[in-house]
Amino acid sequence: MAKVTLSFDNGPDPKVTPKVLEILARHDVLASFFVIGVKAATPQGYALAERAKACGHWIGNHTYTHETPLGLDDDPSAPEREIGATQRVMGALSETERLFRPFGGGGHLDARVLSPAALQYVQDNGYTCVTWNCVPGDWKDADGWPARALAEIAAQDWSLVVLHDIPGACVDRLDGFIASLRKQGHEIAQDFPPGCVPIENGKVIRPEGMAWLGEQRGKA
Ligand SMILES: [Zn+2]
Hints:
- The mean pLDDT is 95.
- Helix 4 packs parallel to helix 5 (116-124).
- The protein is 35% helix and 15% strand.
- The protein has helices at residues 17-26, 37-40, 43-54, 78-90, 116-124, 145-155, 171-183, 214-219; strands spanning 3-9, 32-35, 58-61, 99-100, 128-129, 158-164, 187-189, 199-200, 203-204.
- The chain has a single domain, classed as TIM Barrel (Alpha-Beta Barrel), CATH 3.20.20.370.
- It is built from 8 helices and 9 strands.
- The site of zinc ion has 5 residues, from loops.
- Zinc ion binds at residues 9-10, 62, 66, 103.
């Protein structure tokens, strides 16, 4: 038996997010949605994020365009353009603790995730940085991801699972996956495993949780 936290990235999506919300509600599960600014900026996208928040899910920032991982973007305006702009779109949807999840492109957790400038921006603007420790690859294997997720979950104390509320990803297997979690006796929580929160309210509280930045910081 282990602890499990679910997160849904890269939405909101008009076709998929409502289904994800229904499934979570049916199972009485609270999760987090890390939204892409450009999607949350549409009236439909904003309304979906609003609905998720009203259900009790947490809404976090997942960059504005989700095109280039911040660790690979040398443009000095990138952190403001990607993180700041999304936060402005989110407005009242933001949690009091501003949740930000970077991305590494395909789940990579290494120097690609944050540039030194982006890391500084996250600190200066008081964000809480939320990473992950379980990426079962729902977007590239819409049928096979639950088996991988369940194996990883069984192998560690507390998994923060990254899924995606986008077409062709987790949605068709989500209901069965949550049923399996329950059947296997896992506890589903909304809060994050401490090891996945290296920065809280702009303060680096767990430098060891950012070992993946090491190579880059060494270079700086
Ligand atoms: Zn993402």
